[in-house]
Amino acid sequence: MKLVLVNGSPHGDRGGTARIAGWLLEAAAEAGAQAETFPLSELRVDFCRGCGSCMNSGLCPREDDVPRVHEAWETADLVVLASPVHVFHVTGAMKTFIDRTAALFHRPPLEGRYGAVVTSSAGMGESRVIEYLSLCLEALGAGYVGAVWGTYRPPGRLWEPEAVRERARRLGRELVAAAREKRDYALRDEVISKRRFLRELIRQNRKIFRADHRYWEEHGWYDHLPGTRRPRR
Ligand SMILES: Cc1cc2nc3c(=O)[nH]c(=O)nc-3n(C[C@H](O)[C@H](O)[C@H](O)COP(=O)(O)O)c2cc1C
Known about the structure:
By secondary structure, the protein is an alpha/beta fold. It has a single domain, classed as Rossmann fold, CATH 3.40.50. It contains 9 helices and 6 strands. It has helices at 16-30, 53-56, 66-74, 92-100, 102-106, 126-139, 161-180, 189-204, 210-218, and strands spanning 2-7, 34-39, 78-84, 114-121, 143-153, 157-158. The protein has a 6-stranded mixed beta sheet with strand order 2-1-3-4-5-6, sandwiched between helices. Helix 1 packs across helix 7. The longest helix is centred in the C-terminal third of the chain and has 20 residues, at 161-180. The radius of gyration is 18 Å and the shape is globular. It binds flavin mononucleotide. Flavin mononucleotide binds at residues 9-11, 15-18, 84-88, 120-125, 152.
């Protein structure tokens, strides 16, 4: 089972967010997952120019490291998005990466996979990061399993580290269990509405959204919208 972690912290693998993510990965590895990590601080991630090529031709003209992450997702069972809070939200690096992923929100590549969120802060704004990154995971098709966060009180001391470690490890185990048991997670209404909206947008503008239209036809999504079935419970 493969887990892909994308971390938007400027401190990469040595930061406070990575420390918490590390506990999640450790427990996931004990449960049988192999992790591949992508610290965005070590990758080249250029800004989206808004040209629309990704939705029209299916290709982004920017030549950087973003396709490497998207390729890793193709064979991933589990995807973790991690970012510290920067001024009430995700870091610029994480937002830039997500903007560059825009076309995949039209052609959700994580159907049948499972995702989780990791964040850290000095005590303000984690809920917005969790809300945003979990929304992204669901809109990309993943079942959202949960989030873990920690508060670093300056200078870099994690508040209640044992409790955070335990929560991170539990989430790592839950992620693997979700994939093993093929659990169903309900999509939030916002994601279901977005898919209905996309169906009409792409259908009515198929000359503009050529790559999206082709993908939706090939996958039969005009007739059956993915992810809109109700979960078994
Ligand atoms: C530019 C910047 C903005 C920040 N904004 C916030 C904030 O809005 N709320 C908060 O609680 N912490 C904020 N922090 C603190 C970081 O979220 C916190 O130190 C985090 O644990 C850093 O994680 P990292 O080591 O993985 O980068 C900010 C830090 C920086 C550098």
